[in-house]
């Protein structure tokens, strides 16, 4: 689980409530007792319900999770319940609702891609990139992982991925020489090489790459790489670029073992119904 700490959640609160709730305060409702519920309006994979509950708690309300992140629900199902002073409930209302709606959109998109790919090959892995909206990476990766995907890389520090941009600085023999250097320098990491065509993919495998990242290959070219590698190759083929729920099955059928995607990060939010009233 990606842990979203109170400092990050307080930043979300301060963004929406920098100096208190002017309307609630001006109406004299701040100390009234109230209750709040959130329910799914339609089918979704729920994400960040725990963080939404914590937002309400940080504002002084009592709050409980009804549906944990990662569960798939239908419309009408309760996501969370809270009670406390109206000031706390109304201050946290939209922050918590927006978070669940947005994160559940990402999670639901990830779930759909995983389901489409695994209908063809149950062993396929769907890995989401770091191309989230700037400033949202931890929450975005939390959402896609509860949706059933995994993380391609959280940043430049956790994996070895050799791009053409690296090879541009290595001379004519950059591919083989740089793979050899990476394998020697980072023996505990798999060397991933992004390639642009079938020939380059086969050359990278021959040079010692352990994962071939096929950038924007159509499924038929993925199949050509898999055929060219033969049954004895022990590495992994990762298809990357433009992969969605609509074409994930085709990439799985072509033999890609990993589908690398950014599609969930642009998914529309799911709709959450909120009720607030007197306790």
From TrEMBL:
Source domain of life: Bacteria
Keyword Glycosyltransferase found: yes
SUPFAM superfamilies documented for this protein: Nicotinate/Quinolinate PRTase C-terminal domain-like (SSF51690), Nicotinate/Quinolinate PRTase N-terminal domain-like (SSF54675)
Coiled-coil positions: none
Record keywords: Glycosyltransferase, Transferase
Occurrences of domain Quinolinate phosphoribosyl transferase N-terminal (ranges): 21-104
GO biological process: NAD+ biosynthetic process; quinolinate catabolic process
Residues of the Quinolinate phosphoribosyl transferase C-terminal domain: 107-271
Gene3D superfamilies in UniProt: Aldolase class I, Quinolinate phosphoribosyl transferase, N-terminal domain
Annotated Pfam families: QRPTase_C, QRPTase_N
PANTHER family, sorted: NICOTINATE-NUCLEOTIDE PYROPHOSPHORYLASE [CARBOXYLATING], PYROPHOSPHORYLASE MODD-RELATED
Protein name (database record): Putative pyrophosphorylase ModD
Species of provenance: Rhodobacter capsulatus (strain ATCC BAA-309 / NBRC 16581 / SB1003)
Gene: modD
């Amino acid at each position: 689980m990606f842990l979203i700490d109170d400092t990050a959640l307080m930043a979300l609160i301060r963004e929406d409530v920098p100096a208190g709730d002017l309307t609630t305060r001006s109406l004299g409702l701040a100390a009234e007792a109230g209750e709040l519920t959130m329910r799914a309006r339609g089918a979704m994979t729920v994400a960040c319900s725990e963080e939404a509950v914590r937002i309400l708690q940080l504002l002084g309300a009592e709050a409980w999770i009804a549906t944990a992140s990662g569960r798939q629900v239908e419309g009408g199902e309760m996501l969370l319940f809270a009670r406390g002073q109206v000031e706390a409930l109304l201050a946290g209302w939209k922050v918590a609702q927006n978070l669940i709606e947005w994160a559940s959109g990402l999670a639901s998109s990830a779930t759909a891609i995983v389901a489409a790919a695994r209908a063809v090959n149950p062993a396929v892995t769907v890995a989401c990139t770091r191309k989230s909206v700037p400033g949202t990476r931890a929450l975005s990766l939390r959402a896609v992982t509860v949706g059933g995907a995994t993380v391609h890389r959280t940043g430049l520090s956790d994996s070895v991925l050799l791009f053409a941009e690296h090879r541009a600085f290595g001379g004519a023999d950059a591919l083989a020489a740089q793979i050899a250097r990476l394998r020697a320098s980072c023996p505990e990491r798999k060397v991933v090489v992004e390639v642009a065509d079938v020939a380059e993919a086969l050359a990278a495998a021959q040079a010692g790459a352990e994962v071939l990242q096929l950038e924007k290959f159509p499924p038929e070219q993925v199949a050509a790489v898999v055929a060219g590698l033969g049954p004895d190759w022990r590495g992994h083929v990762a298809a990357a670029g433009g992969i969605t729920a609509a074409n994930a099955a085709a990439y799985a059928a072509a033999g890609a073992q990993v589908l690398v995607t950014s599609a969930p990060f642009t998914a529309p939010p799911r709709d959450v119904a909120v009720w607030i009233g007197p306790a």
